[in-house]
Write a structure and sequence with these properties.
Largest sheet: 6 strands, parallel
Radius of gyration: 17 Å
Oligomer: single chain
Order of helices and strands: EHEHEHEHEHEHHHH
Helix content: 40-55%
Strand order of the largest sheet: 3-2-4-1-5-6
Number of strands: 6
């Protein structure tokens, strides 16, 4: 089953938020989803411990390390339609191993030069694997914490850099929404929250759904592996 690795060597790029949004939306669409939590901050694990009553087909495997990832990935691939890997925001041997296992790599980037460089480090690793080992791994950048009303010069600079390097950029950015922060603070999903207490919850749901649908279209293994429910995704 498809493995999606989320990677940026700079912390704070919105990587774990992207993991959580995609994981919960895929589960809502009916897929069995496993998340391998290799981030030492363990935000996904903490969220999972307070949210299990609101979940159906989503599980989180905590404390994934360089020594355990091969075994845990093999086990979860037998149980899940999708396996998502949340990595530390740093360069490491674990990054190289997790990227090597991936069918698709998603690189979250905020509109800043530091985030862009962290994403570039991952892209360079992917290029190295292609050049030296003939391993081609499909990958995309997703812009995170985007202001829905304002496009900054820094954000435009990131977009121009990606275009110059011919790096695929998802059309769906992750908008800055209070609902996305509240998932970590309060637990649950975008569909278990109270719309009366969370501003623009409907727009947050729409953003997460659009992200999941676009990611699904980027993964040939997902489109052709006969995964139950995929034919209903349009």
């Amino acid at each position: 089953m498809p493995v999606i690795t989320f990677a940026n060597t700079k912390g704070g790029a919105g990587k774990t938020t992207a993991v959580l949004l995609l994981a919960t939306e895929l589960a809502r669409l009916g897929f069995r989803v496993s998340v391998l939590d290799a981030d030492p901050q363990h935000w996904i694990t903490r969220w999972y411990e307070t949210s299990q009553s609101a979940l159906g087909k989503l599980t989180v495997v905590p404390y994934v390390t360089m020594n355990s990832i091969d075994r845990q990935l093999t086990e979860e691939k037998t149980r899940a339609d999708f396996v998502l890997i949340d990595l530390p925001g740093s360069r490491s041997s674990l990054l190289a191993k997790a990227v090597g296992h991936a069918d698709y790599v998603l690189i979250p980037v905020q509109g800043s030069a530091m985030d862009a460089q962290g994403g570039a480090n991952v892209i360079e690793l992917l290029q190295y694997l292609e050049d030296k080992a003939d391993i081609r791994i499909r990958h995309s950048v997703v812009l995170t914490r985007v202001n829905s009303m304002v496009t900054t010069r820094a954000m435009n600079a990131v977009k121009d850099l990606l275009a110059a390097r011919r790096v695929h950029l998802l059309e769906t950015p992750i908008i800055e929404r209070s609902a996305f922060r509240d998932m970590f603070g309060c637990g649950g999903t975008l569909y278990s929250m109270d719309a009366r207490r969370v501003s623009n919850l409907d727009k947050a749901q729409e953003n997460a759904r659009a992200l999941a649908l676009e990611v699904l279209q980027q993964i040939p293994a997902a489109r052709h592996a006969g995964i139950p429910g995929l034919r209903n995704v349009a």
